[in-house]
What does this fold into?
Amino acid sequence: MSIKEIPLIIGGEKVQSKTEQWLDVLNPATQEVVARVPMATLDEVDAAVASAQEAFKSWSKVSLTNRMRIMLNLQQLIRENTEELARLVTLEHGKTLPDAEGEVGRALEAIENACSVTRLQLGQMANNAATGVDVYTMNKPLGVCVGITAFNFPLMLPAFMFPIAIACGNAFVLKPSEQDPSSTMLMVELALKAGIPAGVLNVVHGGPDVANRLCEHQDVKAVSFIGSTHVGTHIYNHAGAHGKRAQCMMGAKNHMVIMPDANKDRAINDLLGSAFGAAGQRCMANPVTILVGEARSWLPEIAERAKSLKVGPGTQRDADLGPVVSPQAKQRIIKLLDSGVEQGATLLVDGRDCQVEGYPDGNFVGPTMFSKVTTDMDIYTQEIFGPALCVLEAETLEEAIEIINNNPNGNGTSLFTSSGWAARKFENEIDVGQVGINVPIPVPVAYFSFTGSRASKLGDLGPNGSQVVSFWTQTKTVTTRWFEPDHQDGSEVHTTISLK
It folds into this structure.
């Protein structure tokens, strides 16, 4: 059986890369090669940017209404192809089919936000700001924009980027993860089918060389990245050094605080779902919980429920979690879990030697849970990005808040409680960009912006919501004064800067 070769998209056409370097795309549950992805040549990257630059000249003049209509077409095509999109996510990423279908839904939210561009891309106006003078702003597209995405959400992360950037009048070059590109490619094909003109949306694949070229290219105006802290820091600095606008959503170490007055069953179930769903491969997962006061007595029950979670291939609908994305990821996760034991944490649930019947080569790691974790242990200081839960304990809410605020990351946090006073105290005193109250994974709906903070984010504008339009546009301010045809004033020279 021939292996599918992933194309580039340049100028609205599928292009076979001329590269000599190809990577295998593996099914994480079986290690079967399901596709091959090219590491694009730098000439191909330049061709994609040139295609976008040329398309921008006409696309930027298309009306807001017509841009919106294309996004309306896209969201309908995504709905109609949900099953196939989810299947491709599960095939190459490994997450369960229900989780993959949920990702399609979150991608749809972002595309639906792009459908609101006719109200999001409005300027401001002051009539008679001075005598006979009007001042108004226009939010103009930037030009060629770039998106670089991680493997863990091959649909949602690109949807955070190209739909709204294109709806704002920009042209786009997307570099998706080379680990699971097929679902992303189908979404791009649907976008072209929806009516995005040739050259407005292009796709290249590759590693650091391709990313660096995109950050350096003189015709690229802005770069959006979602992925690891190490790579994101490099992208932000490299893009900035070459005069690009940049936003980078990066690593995390999110905490869920459970108060003793919380609904016990709901809190425990939501904790386990947020810690172990997608095998922990979410930047908004909850890999740390802080049990406060009497909630510390819930620890044995949390561990027993964790042990009951079912591990299996993503195609098995009753599985709670599938494999991690690659053998390398599994090796790194196991090494970190081993360090937790070596550094003195108590291993309550051990998923390091997870075996799934019928899938001997799968990258499976079972739910793993530690207690007696301290904030200097590697399992706490590093992002495990696997199905691991670290349990800390605190006497008071104030102590829990202090632990979280001392962590350098600020992507998300949540509090489970039935006390409005505790919730209000938490949301006001916590130094984290996204807060959930009885919500385990506080990723906001897409018409609100994604607002991670501190070490989890570089750049002051996040994806989605109103902030994203500010990122993908530049504000042009126009000051105007119009005179009657027979107007006679203006015979004197004025050397002041005031407008009266």
